[in-house]
Structures are given as C-alpha cells and as structure tokens.
Amino acid sequence: MAPTRTNGWAIGALVISICGGVGIGTVLGFVFGLIALREIRRQPQKGRGLAIAALVISSLTAVLLLVGVGYGSTEEIRKSRAGIEDVDVTALKKGDCINEFDTTVRLYDVPVVACTQPHEAEVYLTFTFPTGPFPGVTAVEKQSEEACLQAFTPYDTTENADLDVYYLYPQNTGDWTKDRSVTCLAVDPSGTRTTPLTR
Please, where are the H alpha helices in 121-172? Predict the structure, then answer.
C-alpha cells in the first residue's frame, strides 16, 4: 500500500493562517481549512489536525479583528461625544488645547478639546522658519527654544508657575521640506486645567 500523504489544502491552510496576517490570511486560512476537511473525509489522508488548527487560528484572528474594529469605533464615538478631535501637529494653532500630551514619544496628531475641558497642554505660539536649507537640528532646536521661552514671558505668572514649556519643531531634512513650522506649548503635568492660557 502506498503511504498516506498529507493533504495539501491542510498544509496551505495552516501556513496562510499563520503567515497571511489578519484579513486575507484569516479568510483564506478558514476557507482552505474547510476544503481540507472535506477532502480528508472523502479519501484517507493526513492533515486533519493541521486543518483544524488553521480553522482555530483563523477564528481567533477574526475575533481579534472584530474586537479591534469594535474598540476603534467605540473610541471614536467616545471622542466625538467628549468633543475631542484628533488634529495633525502641523495644523495646530494658537489657543488649541490638548487633552493628553505625551512628551516621551514623537507626535503626529494630538487630541484637541475645548479649553474649558480638562487638558494637559495649550498652544500659545506658532511660527515658521524662513525658506532655506535645513540648518541642522541643533540650530533649529536652539532657535525654537529661544523663541518659545521669550513668547511665554507674558504668561509666566504665579498661577502658571507649574507649567512647563515644550516645542514641536522639524527634526530632519524630511520634516523641514514638508513643514518648517514650530509649535510652542505650555504643558500642565497634572492635566487638570480647565481655563485657557491665551485668553
């Protein structure tokens, strides 16, 4: 008797369910797994365990995908009801208040809220460097710091003593080519301010 071979659909189902990623891998892994089980029932072949494993993996990734989509939708609804709008950092303007401001990572967009709501940061100055080649990150950072600290002087009062000054600036040639603007922010580490700084 010839040795029983492993069903090719079962092998393909397991491989694509693992390596195909969420989405196309999930769908194809599930479909291939069902085809494999049907063929194995019709003729004696190995691979039933592989097909079942592919179905399990595909089912789990489908559940994770649905949970992720559901969470994203719920988060968008929550933000909308709370009056939170995600704004690209290059589109920030004076008077924008930011709900949460993470100073430990590079920012691309931030949650902007009305300044009467609790917020951690507020934009108090924006300016743009003149046209020209990128002068280097050290020079850009130095000029940004000087301009932001000088602009903060009118707000440097007793009630604002707990505020820190941060600034967003172009950090490389790519950033400089896209946008030469600098954004100066007053940040309250406690995140409990409910009044605008630049009133």
Answer: 137-152
